[in-house]
Amino acid sequence: MLNFQEIDVFYGNIQALKKVSMKIDEKEIVSLVGANGAGKTTLIKTIAGYLKPASGNIEFLGQKILRRDPAEIVKMGISHSPEGRRIFPEMTVLENLEMGAYCRSDDKEEQKKDLEWVINIFPALQERANQLASTLSGGEQQMLTIGRALMAHPRLMLLDEPSMGLAPILVGKIFKIIEKINQEGITILLVEQNAFMALSIANNGYVLETGHILMEDKGINLLNNPDIKNYYLGQKITSRRRARTPS
Question: What span, in angstroms and rounded, lies between the C-alpha atoms of 234 and 44?
Fold first, then answer.
């Protein structure tokens, strides 16, 4: 579904992504894990069209998306749930959800069906439909951000740190929702610092370190990899070789 090929991204003179390549197959959950500053959000923003690479290529469903505007990328079937929630605080919950469908060109009945589907996934949002988004709790705001991205009717969903700042009980709930969304046929690229949770639900995973892909493998294999365990205990990874997904 998505091919990310030899991508270099710079912030001024600082190189944030270094020859990064990855692929996502349809209906997968692919998790991207790494420490703060590794380049995870940069990678997400590059796919979404907010950042323009210095070199490389990105293809979605066989079409190049490298130089397309973010709105055009949304129309092609990629939606983005950003880090830090980024809701419209002075709009109601319902208006925030409706904004997710802004780029859609299909009829209102189809959009209404998707709204009902999103509300079924997040019943708390229905109860608060007419409240200002700023009055929601942190967990509810995260649900709203994901729901708004779903309203774009995506084929591929980019989730950037959905568990950030949430209580442990809510983290588990959010990850169950992510699995449910995937079961509906939506492909997911998940960026997460919570490596255990992210790799537990992933078909495949990538480890990003200082702008380059350090390892790639099936999620369960990365989860059980001793180097990854050491890495997330703050110790240096001893092996620099990529772990390829078995054929």
Answer: 24
Cα(231)–Cα(174) distance, integer angstroms: 25
Strands 204-209 and 29-33, bridge-based pairing: parallel
Q: Of 20, 24, 48, which Cα lies nearest the Cα of 34?
A: 20
φ/ψ region of 84 (left if φ > 0, alpha if ψ in -120 to 50, else beta) reads left
The tokens 């919570």 sit on which residue? 194
* CATH placement of domain 2-231: 3.40.50.300
Task: Give me the helix-helix angle, 168-183 and 108-121, nearest 10°.
Answer: 140
Model pTM?
0.89
d(CA 36, CA 240): 19
Please give the angle made by the CA atoms of 45, 4 and 17, to the nearest 5 degrees.
55
Q: Taking the domains of the chain in order of start, what are their residue ranges?
A: 2-231
Angle formed by the axes of helices 108-121 and 138-150, nearest 10°? 150
- Residue-wise pLDDT for 128-187, tens only, equals 999 999 999 988 999 999 999 999 999 999 999 998 888 888 888 899 999 999 999 999
CB 129 within 8 A of CB 92: yes
Q: Which helix (H) or strand (E) holds 127?
A: helix 123-127
Mean pLDDT, residues 60-66: 94
Structure tokens at 29: 């959950």
